[in-house]
Amino acid sequence: MTEAPLPAEHLSPLATLVEEVLADVGYEMPAATDAINGAVPGHGGLFDPNTSSTELRRAIEELLASGLTRPPVPDPADDTFVLYVDGSSRGNPGPAGAGAVIIDAEETQLARLSRPVGSRTGNNTAEYVALQLGLAELLARYEPHKLEVRIDSMTVIHDVWEGDDPTVPGVETYSGAVATALSNIPDHQYTHLADSDPNPADALATVGADIAALGPG
């Protein structure tokens, strides 16, 4: 798994703490939310309106100090994978999140990844971050030989697979990391998802945007 948090845009102190929890559990959103909800006193949780920012910050700080255990890495069917990615931004720019789902050749979901991207970030940047997130964790966990990336962003497709120069200001950090990651996968291609196509990464990107929208804390 990735050994350090991936780069992020501007986040509030509270959203940054949640990002640290996510990094510690390999960006596995279910594991992170379970850990945070278990640490919050009473019946509240990460997104419970009855949980105050102060309660949430204190619980997360104690959780981080106690140490977190990363979930075990499931064994894949072979070295062929599918990666669904999606980015979400409310307001474009606004609170933005990234989601990615890693699936093996037998269509078993191996990882459900999510993270906040920034509190005032555009959708195209979130799409880049989603691809970087998925590729980083795929390569950290497995040795992929063949990969199909399923993505709905034509901007990222044009830039990454069709050789266009990045058209979104400030994405060079992400686009460079994506290019490096793909160079380590011998056989990779993309499939463009239409708006009507199911994408399991969509909900994870939305949760990432929810985290990016958390107050100062």
From TrEMBL:
UniProt signal peptide: none
Segments forming domain RNase H type-1: 77-210
Molecular functions per Gene Ontology: nucleic acid binding; RNA-DNA hybrid ribonuclease activity
Source domain of life: Archaea
Listed Gene3D superfamilies: Ribonuclease H-like superfamily/Ribonuclease H
Pfam families, A to Z: RNase_H
Protein name: Ribonuclease HI family protein
Protein species of origin: Haloarcula nitratireducens
